Amino acid sequence: xxxxxxxxxxxxxxxxxxxxxxxxxxxxxxxxxxxxxxxxxxxxxxxxxxxxxxxxxxxxxxxxxxxxxxxxxxxxxxxxxxxxxxxxxxxxxxxxxxxxxxxxxxxxxxxxxxxxxxxxxxxxxxxxxxxxxxxxxxxxxxxxxxxxxxxxxxxxxxxxxxxxxxxxxxxxxxxxxxxxxxxxxxxxxxxxxxxxxxxxxxxxxxxxxxxxxxxxxxxxxxxxxxxxxxxxxxxxxxxxxxxxxxxxxxxx
Length: 252
Hints:
The chain is α/β, with parallel strands linked by helices. The protein has one domain: Rossmann fold. The protein is 45% helix and 17% strand. It is built from 9 helices and 7 strands. The chain has helices at residues 34-46, 70-88, 115-122, 134-147, 164-177, 190-202, 215-231, 233-238, 242-251, and strands spanning 8-9, 57-64, 93-101, 105-112, 152-157, 181-186, 206-210. A 7-stranded mixed β-sheet has the order 1-4-3-2-5-6-7, sandwiched between helices. The relative contact order is 0.21.
């Protein structure tokens, strides 16, 4: 099927070209407390299920690809396959990769249903300098769900350089459409935290913070969000692998 072939489609919110390779930046952040991840998981428990039984969920997976994001981008490339596996038990998950970098460059991939397809897309992207474009990501998610229902938006980033009022309006629109934004922050930048929390609140989603370079923490957050997109909390309960057991232990 076309959605399983690597490639990109023009996003309504920014310029699009074929997806390409990766480059560096080293985040400078203090480790985040375990309580942040526990709080996020508790928020997920309070959300309502996202889809009908047997129906594939659709998740927009958005990443900041500016220079500071390289180390976590490489981690996300490895961990995204776990998102698919977590969702498989409840009918599977279709994912669209969205990223921004450089000067006003924001791109979206086709929808893919196999982890290796998403990996192929991600490893060809190189991070470049530029400002955040979170507003474009939120607008894109809104336009995608207008075409066909999107169960959740997952965003991973470490900064926010936009007007919070503009992001708040876009987040509120997602909330009205039933598309929760799962805002995952790397590091402890206070401006980013304030904005991410507000976007999560207004979209009826959830906020989570993870330490710079902590693959384990990011893996838990991504799998929890993927399980929700595929079938709500019931999806987590259906899994019996190590990661799911750890999540369930914290949710009880």
